[in-house]
Amino acid sequence: MRTEFDFAPLYRSSIGFDRVFSLLNNPQRLQAVDAWPPYDILKVGDNEYRIVMAVAGFEDGDLDITQERNVLHVKGGKADDTKAEYLHRGIATRGFERRFELADHVSVENASLKNGLLHIDLKREIPEAMKPRKIAIGDGAQKQVPLQIEGEKQVA
């Protein structure tokens, strides 16, 4: 049973949040949860985050990280090793694709692979135009600009 929330009352008192409401209503966000590979999301600073994924058995060339607009895609794929005969295979090296929805102005700063852990560092940089600014309150008088009806006539 799918329950839809009615965000109409919030539209009356909020401006510019339509993207957030559409994300919440997006049916793709309710897709089946795949628990592999396991990952952590850490808040490192006020505007800094880190995603750590356990990708044992993968190398740099087996992983692909791309950012499109506000979505981070992490893909992993490894060619099957048909030469070896496994008596027991406990390390999963199956392909995967994981998507992370990113907030506005969040971008990938760095990615590194060390000891089977993929570290993806993210940073939110708010543009200067988007930062809070103080608005001066004037006396209400508007500057009067003289209207020019006709240009000056040239004397011949």
Automatic annotation (TrEMBL):
Domain named SHSP: residues: 30-140
**Which keywords describe this protein according to UniProt?**
Stress response
Which species is this record about? Rhizobium leguminosarum
| Descriptive protein name | Molecular chaperone IbpA
Q: Name one Pfam family in it.
A: HSP20
Q: Which family does it belong to?
A: Belongs to the small heat shock protein (HSP20) family.
This protein's superkingdom? Bacteria
